[in-house]
Model the fold of this input.
Amino acid sequence: MAAFGVLDEIVDTARYPLADPDGSDVREVVRRARAELADSGCTVLRGFIRPELTETLRAQGERMAPHAYYEVEQVNAYNIPLDAELPQDHPARIVLMRGNAFVPRDRIPADALIHQLYVDELFQRFVARCFELPELHEFADPLAGLCLNVVAPDMSHPWHFDTNEFTVSMLTQPAEAGGVFEYCPNIRTPEVENFDDVRAVLTGSGERFIQRLELLPGDLQLFRGRFSLHRVSPVSGARQRHSAIFAYTDRPGVVGTVERTRQLFGRVLPDHLAAAADVVRGDRLLD
Done:
């Protein structure tokens, strides 16, 4: 765990005094975050990182980016095999091109700002409060728990659902153009897939479901990506789009599937193979 002295140097404590969790300022931040998460499944804490550190944040991400696994491939919004036996009109039959890349956790230095935030217990407790949970656990996946999402020019991160229920992310470098975060708030629930609505979005007739979010470097985004279909729109210009993804769950032991891990990182570890026989999930939704 990072000492609060270190966290205090990273977070803009004038706006987010995490060391005083019972103070009125933090209570108000938590109240607003809870309300927005309940309404749309998404909230953004603007300027969470000290403004003087946004260039450090960007530069660290730029140094990590070459370690990303790049492979343009065909996927679907559920990240399940394309040859799965499904009805002809099932939205998982709609093929998307995934061109984004991920730097895995084992290639992110321990002294990087995003790693110090991810493992810090004060930060985790604050995020748990925002999600109205008694506690959060780091995603047990040794590759996907913390990663840097890299979207190169002319590429995108296509429509998808997250495996884990709670995702925390932070833009570290914006694209010159494009690269907009788009999402469909609560388009499915733990009980109902709402395949017709998902299909509408994937086929271009579901504009009514889509919201768009402008993010700035150092903004902290809390998101329920398990239930809200989302993507990063195609990037244009000369600069890559980088964002850190901090993955947490409300129970221990959650590890990504073998299929999805191979898609994202080009490799699997013994942890993924062992977890395949004993999947830990809180619902029966497609992945």
User: Anything to note?
Assistant: The domain at 4-276 is CATH 2.60.120.620 (Jelly Rolls). The radius of gyration is 18 Å. The first strand starts at residue 42 and ends at 45. The chain has one domain: 4-276.
